[in-house]
């Protein structure tokens, strides 16, 4: 068996929040993996790996997983000698965080949909862009342009429901959610960092600094895969 076959392999799309989480966790744990960015309309790769969609992480022993929150947490058990990502998070606090996140996800997905064409895999080809436009209309019953026009009101709802300003102040004091880098920081950053691309919307400066702090701690760029670096 070749050395490459013994490595961890990640099949993902740059524009995928779940893929971003996996890359951040792997990098924070200082694990070595082979990146396999896939095209926007590539479904065959996922099917070949016995999944309906990407991302898919293939471990060196052949075990496969995606990026549900439970699977992300499981990486601590699979790689016990690496930096733990969840040991400082009490179970009730983790459950409360997951509930908070789930309540915001539908609104957040609508907000970031118009900025995902910042990724080259969507915008570099007219057919890919048309495919993405059709997917937006199917998922949200609105065009990309309509979603973009609704960004101000939608962001105000997100900021209020998620108490983003209060969250930013807490994170500014603690640097990370628990004081040390944890899985919550990676999820928050992967989920929310694309809000910085919303034209005319200013997210709390504390959160912007926090995103960069988490990215630096993970030794990863949040702009990977984008057409233009920010």
Question: Any descriptors?
Answer:
Glutathione-S-Trfase_C_sf; 11 helices; Glutathione S-transferase; Glutathione_S-Trfase_N; single chain; Glutaredoxin; transferase; 4-stranded mixed beta sheet; transferase activity; alpha+beta
Order of helices and strands: EHEHEEHHHHHHHHH
Query: What is the β-strand count?
Result: 4
Question: Percent of residues in helical segments?
Answer: 40-55%
Rg over CA atoms: 18 Å
Termini gap? 41 Å
Task: Please tell me the total number of domains.
Answer: 2
Shape: globular
H/I helix tally: 11
Widest sheet, order of strands: 2-1-3-4
Structural class: alpha+beta
Q: Report the biggest beta sheet as strand number plus sense, adding barrel if it closes.
A: 4 strands, mixed
SSE topology sketch:
Elements: E1 8-12, H1 17-28, E2 33-37, H2 44-48, E3 56-58, E4 64-65, H3 69-78, H4 91-112, H5 120-123, H6 126-140, H7 144-149, H8 151-162, H9 164-174, H10 183-192, H11 205-218
Parallel strand pairs: 1-2
Antiparallel strand pairs: 1-3, 3-4
How does this model look, in words?
Pfam families: Glutaredoxin2_C (PF04399). This protein is an alpha+beta fold and 230 residues long. It has two domains: 4-78, Glutaredoxin (3-Layer(aba) Sandwich), CATH 3.40.30.10; 91-218. It is built from eleven helices and four strands; from the N terminus they run βαβαββααααααααα. The protein has a four-stranded mixed β-sheet, covered by helices on one side. It starts with 7 loop residues before the first strand and ends in a 12-residue tail after the last helix.
């Amino acid at each position: 068996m070749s050395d490459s076959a013994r490595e961890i392999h990640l099949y993902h799309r740059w524009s995928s929040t779940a893929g971003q989480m996996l890359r951040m966790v792997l990098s924070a744990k200082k694990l070595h993996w082979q990146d396999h960015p896939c095209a926007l309309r590539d479904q065959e790769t996922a099917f070949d790996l016995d999944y309906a969609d990407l991302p898919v992480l293939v471990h060196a022993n052949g075990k496969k997983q995606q990026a549900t929150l439970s699977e992300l947490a499981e990486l601590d058990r699979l790689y016990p000698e690496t930096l733990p990502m969840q040991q400082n998070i009490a179970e009730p606090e983790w459950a409360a965080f997951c509930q908070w996140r789930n309540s915001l996800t539908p609104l957040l997905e609508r907000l970031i949909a118009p900025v995902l064409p910042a990724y080259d895999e969507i915008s570099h080809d007219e057919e890919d862009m048309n495919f993405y436009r059709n997917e937006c209309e199917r998922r949200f019953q609105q065009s990309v342009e309509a979603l973009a026009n609704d960004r101000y009101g939608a962001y105000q709802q997100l900021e209020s429901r998620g108490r983003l300003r209060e969250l930013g102040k807490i994170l500014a004091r603690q640097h990370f959610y628990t004081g040390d880098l944890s899985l919550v920081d990676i999820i928050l950053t992967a989920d929310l960092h694309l809000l910085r691309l919303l034209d005319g919307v200013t997210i709390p400066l504390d959160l912007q600094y926090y995103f960069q702090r988490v990215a630096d701690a993970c030794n990863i760029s949040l702009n990977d895969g984008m057409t233009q670096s920010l």
